[in-house]
């Protein structure tokens, strides 16, 4: 077996890959570590879901492995040093979900500004009429300039919102701010002036608890918060206090870690906290882009390993043009290579 798939590719990409390699689709192995170890022993490439970690022990059971591919972004479950030592290439569809995540954030802002829509969607046809707000003329603070923020900024600018932003890794004189129509401000000013805050920080362990009591003390009362960064960014007690006393009117987060608002935690009783299970990346278009990207990159790795030949040359397949997610300033999704 050349390729083992624990996640499903779109049918077109799967057919294209099967025409060039021996492919086996076994998504059930993600829940059976013992069976997975047996299956990867003769695999040269594997496509893994988020919950399957790549460790040195994992690689010990895969002596022929040349590539580990994922359709999501993030390296917290992949031992990059171990992959480097084993000369295993790590492939990620890093920009396939940019637009879908940006649209999720926009949808979350609109829903929280117009809460009556949510009541109707929940099945209450006789819900009390609630006065909402418009994004036009609203000050939206962008906390973090991960790729989704670039696309979101252009969407919000088109709707007439005024944008302010802060990212600890981007200097206030960087051209990206003016290109995206964002006024760079201090973190304290972003909290004090934003009527809505969108959080998309490129998370690192040093940012754990970054959104804490000290930061939220500067909130403009009645703020709306949306985000798709890791929930470790938030101090749970500080967020719970802000949701309770009105500094934050409502908050919607995508993909919070298990236990973030479970029973016994400060956020468990927060009725104005809404959590969704990584819906930001779940669109047909994003899955199409990610599937083709992964299929092409896996093929290239295996073709290169086999040497040149008429059947090994990387080919242009249907859907090639969909590898670009359309995010401003981004080209074909970059390949993260460990050598």
Task: Describe the fold and architecture.
- The chain folds into two domains: 3-96 and 283-323, NAD(P)-binding Rossmann-like Domain (Rossmann fold), CATH 3.40.50; 99-276, Rossmann fold.
- Residues 310-339 have low confidence and may be disordered.
- The protein is built from twelve helices and twelve strands.
- Helix 5 (98-113) packs across helix 7.
- The strands form two sheets. It has a seven-stranded parallel β-sheet, sandwiched between helices.
- Helices cover 32% and strands 15% of the residues.
- With 339 residues, it is an alpha/beta fold.
Distinctive features:
alpha/beta, Rossmann fold, 2 domains, 7-stranded parallel sheet, 12 helices, 32% helix, elongated, disordered C terminus
CATH architecture of the largest domain: 3-Layer(aba) Sandwich
CATH topology of the largest domain: Rossmann fold
Strand content: 5-15%
Report the C-alpha radius of gyration, rounded: 22 Å
Mean pLDDT over all positions: 88
What is the helix content? 25-40%
In the residues, how many domains can be counted? 2
Short description:
With 339 residues, this protein is of the alpha/beta class.
List the helices and strands and how they pair.
Blueprint: E1 3-5, H1 11-18, E2 23-25, H2 33-39, E3 45-47, H3 56-60, E4 67-70, H4 80-85, E5 89-92, H5 98-113, H6 115-121, E6 139-143, H7 147-158, E7 162-166, H8 175-179, E8 182-184, H9 187-193, E9 196-199, H10 213-216, E10 223-227, H11 236-245, E11 248-254, E12 273-276, H12 284-306
Parallel strand pairs: 1-2, 1-3, 3-4, 4-5, 6-7, 6-9, 7-8, 9-10, 10-11, 11-12
Helix pairs in contact: 1-12, 5-6, 5-7
